[in-house]
């Protein structure tokens, strides 16, 4: 295996784990098109550097703690996280749920900041994870902005490998029109059973959507009625973040 090929495969492994949260050796080997032994050797090297770690000896791997300082250095360069984090912390404390900031990247929503509420039962740790655009609240907000000028580009705006039927694409297009008109998106057990979320856009001083702010939590704590009640709070928080970005514009 050449050095460049090894690096390419290592990046692919990290991207797959970031997308799914964790992945097994067989799953990763299939995605890479290699034998399990080759995938295991690659995972071993990544594990030595703390970039991945095995989950309970089950042959399943997740992101390692060595990625945290790397991600932190990237986040420091993201203006939106600098201005958003205090607002996210306050919103999470007030609503008692998990608050995240996501930005678009190659057909995914990338979660670049997170604040957790005081509840012992919270949503997952989303920081650094890639999530789909078509069935998450942040994804729908980012997708609605991306296709606003050209609705026919919807299919190509999704991550490679995303397969939606024509009826599903029509349903999604109608939902994105609702997002554009009303300024928020809901996801009720679409991405994951038992998970509800609402997201709204964060805009730069020119009005361009640069990120999405979401509040998520278990469905029993965030039923549709509760989601409806807090949507205005999430909108207000996103406007505050946009205002802070505007104030610091050169």
From TrEMBL:
- Organism encoding this protein: Pseudonocardia parietis
* PROSITE patterns from the UniProt entry: HTH_ICLR, ICLR_ED
Keyword Metal-binding assigned = no
The identity of this protein, by name, is DNA-binding IclR family transcriptional regulator
Respond yes or no to whether keyword Transmembrane helix is given for this record.
Answer: no
Example GO molecular function term? DNA binding
What keywords does the record list, in alphabetical order? DNA-binding, Transcription, Transcription regulation
* Residue intervals of the IclR-ED domain: 66-247
SMART domains from the entry? Answer: HTH_ICLR
Q: Which InterPro entries match?
A: GAF-like_dom_sf, HTH_MetabolicPath_Reg, Tscrpt_reg_IclR_C, Tscrpt_reg_IclR_N, WH-like_DNA-bd_sf, WH_DNA-bd_sf
Pinpoint the HTH iclR-type domain residues: 4-65
Domain of life of the source: Bacteria
């Amino acid at each position: 295996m050449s050095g460049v090929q090894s690096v390419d495969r290592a990046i692919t492994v990290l991207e797959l784990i970031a997308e799914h949260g964790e992945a097994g050796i067989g799953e990763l080997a299939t995605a890479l098109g290699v034998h399990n032994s080759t995938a295991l050797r690659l995972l071993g090297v990544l594990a030595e550097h703390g970039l991945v770690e095995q989950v309970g000896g089950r042959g399943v791997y997740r992101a390692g703690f060595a990625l945290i300082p790397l991600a932190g250095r990237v986040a420091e360069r993201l203006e939106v996280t600098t201005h958003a984090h205090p607002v996210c912390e306050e919103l999470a404390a007030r609503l008692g749920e998990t608050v995240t900031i996501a930005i678009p990247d190659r057909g995914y929503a990338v979660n670049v900041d997170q604040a957790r509420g005081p509840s012992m039962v919270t949503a997952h740790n989303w920081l650094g994870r890639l999530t789909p655009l078509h069935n998450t609240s942040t994804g729908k907000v980012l997708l609605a902005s991306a296709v606003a000028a050209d609705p026919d580009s919807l299919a190509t705006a999704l991550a490679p490998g995303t397969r939606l039927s024509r009826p599903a694409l029509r349903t999604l297009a109608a939902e994105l029109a609702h997002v554009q008109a009303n300024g928020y998106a809901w996801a009720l057990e679409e991405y994951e059973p038992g998970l509800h979320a609402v997201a709204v856009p964060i805009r730069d001083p020119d009005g361009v959507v640069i990120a999405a702010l979401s509040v998520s939590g278990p469905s029993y704590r965030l039923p549709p009625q509760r989601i409806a009640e807090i949507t205005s709070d999430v909108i207000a928080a996103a406007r505050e973040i946009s205002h802070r970005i505007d104030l610091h514009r050169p």
